[in-house]
Amino acid sequence: MNLVVITRNFPAEGGDTAFFETEWKYLCQNFANVYLISKSKDHSKVIVIPENVNIYWYNPTQKDRYMQLFSILNKDFLKELLKSFHGQKITKWLSRFRDILATELDRRAFSKYLKKIKMDLNDETMMYSYWMTGETLTFLDLKKKNKNVKVISRVHGYDLYNERTLGGWQPYRNRLSQELDAIYFASKQGKMYFDEKWPNCMQQTREVAKLGCKPAEDIIQVEKSYKKNKINLLSCSNVIKLKRIDLIIEALALLPEDVKVQWYHIGDGCEMNKIEIMAHQYLDDKNNIDWAMTGRMEHSQIDRFYFEKEIQLFIIVSETEGGCPVSIQEAFAHKVPAIGTAVGGIPELIINKKTGLLLNENPSARSIANAILEYIKYSNAECRSMSENAFKLYQREYNADINAQRFVENLLLY
């Protein structure tokens, strides 16, 4: 069987590469020919490409996309517009119109591109969209013309939740929910959400296929020290509004002076400058709080960071999450429990008072501070138990190698 797969960044650095690279190894081993289509603008490869792989860099310009305007007035497009308009205010519908138009342009531009590269679809072929996007629709269009084609898609967060779009509408989900051969979700909560919103075709394969992360390189786990009134705290995420890093800063500022915290944040993003200014304003005068924002790191660097800085507790206060955050999985792989909000797949990871402390969906800075204080008050034995529970959960459900093997074995059953 042949495989055609489209990614956003892989095999270049950043984005989905960190999530996809383990799975990629098993895909290449089990499919005869692999066509990898990457939307990355960085054409430097960070992995070795096997001999059975053909790689294509797909970087449509705005001109390429808007050249398709003349071909979008079709039945599918008009039907989607009418559905999205029902009962909506004009401002919200305009946002929906923009999203539907963008999806349709992506679909048409990708269709034109695939005609140029002339893939051999005579043999049995699986088309795999790592994100549920306009390009996924293009694969479905090809499936209609080629009886040998099966189409599957993963779905994560921004491509799943209506609430993650300005107009509250994920384009073409009715068609995708009916025509895809299989849809794979990063969390149980994500699958429940999709089933509730788009129950159209429950006989298709809809499964949870957790991503996982690589095992920690420091295989020999050192005995962690649990110092009274002293904690090394880590957060790791893009520095964007929905990650609510400002709440972490506010919470740290509320801690009593006899509680000493070293807080590190790994990651960068559009709100980096704003968050650094806020951290200076709230924390620089606090004798009990030290902080550092490291910027983005590769997985291997994060791995060493946990070991070198003796991280004791992880924290995440996201507003929404599409799946089970890999950042928490990485913490658990290092025997580090977590404090987190009960959104997305986080409750599947943070079992309250077992693998960490679970906050409500919209915690106050005070409640976050109280959770940090609660953890600090635990005895060494209680902290050690929580660490072991987190590590066991990682080994059981979030080891990337094991999960990737299971996922690929599942694909081969089609």
What does this molecule look like?
The chain has 15 helices and 13 strands. It has 414 residues and is an alpha/beta fold. A 7-stranded parallel β-sheet has the order 3-2-1-4-5-6-7. The protein has a 6-stranded parallel β-sheet with strand order 10-9-8-11-12-13, with helices on both faces. Strand 1 (2-7), helix 1 (17-30) and strand 2 (34-38) form a beta-alpha-beta unit. Helix 8 (245-254) runs parallel beside helix 9 (272-283) and helix 8 (245-254) packs across helix 13 (365-377). The model has no long low-confidence stretch (mean pLDDT 91).
Low-confidence stretches: none
Number of helices: 15
The assembly state of the depicted protein chains is single chain
Shape: globular
Instruction: Output the structural class.
Output: alpha/beta
The largest sheet is: 7 strands, parallel
Radius of gyration: 23 Å
Amount of helix: 40-55%
Biggest sheet: strand arrangement: 3-2-1-4-5-6-7
End-to-end distance: 10 Å
Order of helices and strands: EHEEHHHEHEHEHEEHEHEHEHEHEHHH
Estimate the strand proportion: 15-25%
| E-strand count | 13
In round numbers, the mean pLDDT is 91
Can I get a quick summary?
The protein is an alpha/beta fold and 414 residues long.
Provide key terms for this protein.
414 residues, alpha/beta, six-stranded parallel sheet, 17% strand
Topology:
Blueprint: E1 2-7, H1 17-30, E2 34-38, E3 53-57, H2 62-66, H3 75-85, H4 90-117, E4 125-129, H5 134-145, E5 149-155, H6 173-179, E6 182-185, H7 188-197, E7 205-208, E8 230-236, H8 245-254, E9 260-266, H9 272-283, E10 289-295, H10 299-309, E11 313-316, H11 326-333, E12 338-341, H12 346-349, E13 356-359, H13 365-377, H14 380-397, H15 400-411
Parallel strand pairs: 1-2, 1-4, 2-3, 4-5, 5-6, 6-7, 8-9, 8-11, 9-10, 11-12, 12-13
Helix pairs in contact: 1-15, 3-4, 4-5, 8-9, 8-13, 11-14
